[in-house]
Amino acid sequence: MRSCACDRRADRVLAKNNRGKRPLTRAAEGEVLQTAVEGPAPWEPGTVRSAEDGELHVFSFDTEEDGRRSGPDGEPFRDRNERRLRGLLADLLGRREHEVPLSRDGYGRLRVDGLPIGVTICDDGGRLGVALASGTQVALSAHPVPRTFAAPAYLPFTVHERRTADLAPEHQRPRFLARLWARKEAALRLAGPGRLSLADQVDALPGGWGGEVLVPEPLPGGGQRLRGAYVVDLPETQGGWVAAAATSAPLRAVRVWRLGAPRGCVMG
């Protein structure tokens, strides 16, 4: 009974927190924006060749690292991940592997530039993901669900987010906060480098129109404006990982694919 009461109180706080945000229904069109999430489903070469506008494809696979630097065959995981990513992107884009503009930034992170569609690569804690979208920018975030959350872990959350988390049943709180952080980080990554310092100013609780999360954007002459990121929760992965995707335009559909790895896969 206590858990049910907590859930009802959390719902009331969430409803209050969402007052003033865009309604889920567009008054002019009478349209309710809903993002359909399908999957995870096994991916095979040739399954996906392109993404239509308003459609997002997310691909995830296990990097097998587990704290090691190389696999049983001696190949460094860094090289193996890059090779597998290049092969995946070549198939998705209909190009030869050497034609895929895959490189690394100054921090050694994989990136791909110069494409007519939105592509992002996410490597969080050894979990590698790729998102492909048309007509929109995209960012990903994935994190494991911890057993507990210490007090300092609440610092990146807004007051409303903390109050809502406190009303959740205690055994559900770590998952609630991990998923909330994945939503927030995806929105901040979409906004650009250096935005994580704004985390405690960004309310990432679900409920905005189309999953919209508002992120402060500094203006050249001083001050700031709010930029919208459209955030969708992705299916939980094996091993208790939660993930979210953020795009610069509303989504109609999200399709999640799992890629087999020598000892398993992430999604599913």
Strand order of the largest sheet: 3-13-4-8-7
Beta-strand percent range: 25-35%
Report the count of strand segments.
13
SS content category: alpha+beta
Which runs of at least 5 residues are low in confidence (pLDDT < 50)? 1-32, 65-70, 261-268
Radius of gyration: 19 Å
Please count the helical segments.
Answer: 4
The biggest beta sheet reads:
5 strands, mixed
Overall morphology: globular
Provide mean pLDDT, rounded: 76
**Order of helical and strand elements:** HEEEEHEEEEEHHEEEE
Distance N to C terminus: 32 Å
Give the % helix. 10-25%
Describe the structure.
With 268 residues, this protein is an alpha+beta fold. Helices cover 23% and strands 30% of the residues. It contains 4 helices and 13 strands. The strands form 4 sheets. A 5-stranded mixed β-sheet has the order 3-13-4-8-7, with no helix packed on it. A 4-stranded antiparallel β-sheet has the order 9-12-11-10, covered by helices on one side. Helix 1 (2-17) packs antiparallel against helix 3 (159-167). It is globular and about 50 Å long. The two termini are 32 Å apart.
Short key terms for the protein model shown above:
disordered N terminus, 4 helices, alpha+beta, 268 residues, 23% helix, disordered C terminus, 4-stranded antiparallel sheet
